Amino acid sequence: MAKTPTQRRRTLDKRPGRWLLQDAKARFSELVRRVRAEGPQHVTVHGRNEVVVVAAEEFRRLKGDVTGASLVAALQASPYREIDLEPRRSRLPVRDATL
Prior knowledge:
Layout: H1 5-12, E1 18-20, H2 21-26, H3 28-38, E2 41-45, E3 48-53, H4 56-63, H5 68-77
Parallel strand pairs: 1-2
Antiparallel strand pairs: 2-3
């Protein structure tokens, strides 16, 4: 018995970490569990990779979010940490109020 195009496509997308869009929508909880357990999961539309689902921690790492703690750590590790950042200003002259 010959397979329909949909059945052939489903067979091709059964590779580990690959999901057809309709399967990802129908089994979203499982998709999330697999992201946590196995890593990034690819979602395909019409046989093409369209999106990759990643864990939130991985997304933040890839995006490079700067938090207060990471900024402080980066400044402490910087070779420029000894530079004085305080502005050096002389006092401004006081204007004579009688003019």
